[in-house]
Amino acid sequence: PNRFSETADGMEVEVEPQANIDKEGKSSNDEKAKGSGKDGLKSMSTDALKATFEKEEEPSEEKVVDINDVECPPDAEVIKVVEPILEEDYDLSVTDLYKQIETKQWSQVLASINLYPDQVKTWILRREKHDTSRLRWRLLPIHAAVIFQAPHALIE
Question: What is the pTM of this model?
Answer without folding.
Answer: 0.48
